[in-house]
C-alpha cells in the first residue's frame, strides 16, 4: 500500500484508534470530545462539527489529495456525511456498522435525517 491513497480511519462512539504503527499516509484522528480533543465543550460537538474537524485534519495532513475513509459506528456515520459534504475529497469509503436506516425514533434517525447534517446537505 505504499503507493496507494491516504486513508483516514474514524473511530466509533466509545472508541479510539491509538495505532501509532500506521504508515505516515494513514491517519486516525481523535474526534472532538476524545483524546487530544477531549476538552472541547459538549455543546460544540455535533455531527457537522465532526465533519468539519475531519475536513480540517485531512487538509492539514494530506493537502489536496483525495482520501479513502474508513469509519466504524458513529465514525461510519461521520464518514458518510464527510463524503456527502465533500465528494471531491473522497476516493472510496468503508462504513462499518454506521447505521443510517434505523427506525423513526432515536439518535440514528436524527443522523439519517438530511437536515441534521447542517448547511452542507443538499435539499
Automatic annotation (TrEMBL):
The keyword Hydrolase applies. GO terms for molecular function: hydrolase activity. It comes from the Bacteria. Residues 5-100 form the AB hydrolase-1 domain. GO terms for cellular component: membrane. The lineage of its organism: Bacteria, Pseudomonadati, Pseudomonadota, Betaproteobacteria, Burkholderiales. The keyword Hydrolase applies. PANTHER family: AB HYDROLASE-1 DOMAIN-CONTAINING PROTEIN, MONOACYLGLYCEROL LIPASE. Gene3D superfamilies: alpha/beta hydrolase. This is Alpha/beta hydrolase fold. Pfam families: Abhydrolase_1. It comes from Paraburkholderia tuberum. Keywords: Hydrolase.
Amino acid at each position: 500500500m505504499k503507493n496507494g491513497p491516504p486513508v483516514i480511519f474514524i473511530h466509533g462512539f466509545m472508541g479510539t484508534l491509538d495505532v501509532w504503527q500506521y504508515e505516515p499516509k494513514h491517519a486516525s484522528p481523535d474526534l472532538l470530545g476524545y483524546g487530544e480533543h477531549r476538552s472541547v465543550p459538549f455543546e460544540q460537538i455535533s455531527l457537522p462539527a465532526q465533519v468539519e474537524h475531519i475536513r480540517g485534519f485531512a487538509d492539514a495532513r494530506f493537502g489536496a489529495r483525495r482520501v479513502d475513509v474508513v469509519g466504524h459506528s458513529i465514525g461510519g456515520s461521520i464518514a458518510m456525511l464527510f463524503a456527502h459534504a465533500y465528494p471531491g475529497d473522497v476516493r472510496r469509503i468503508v462504513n462499518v456498522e454506521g447505521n443510517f436506516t434505523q427506525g423513526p425514533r432515536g439518535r440514528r434517525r436524527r443522523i439519517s435525517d438530511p437536515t441534521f447534517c447542517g448547511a452542507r446537505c443538499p435539499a
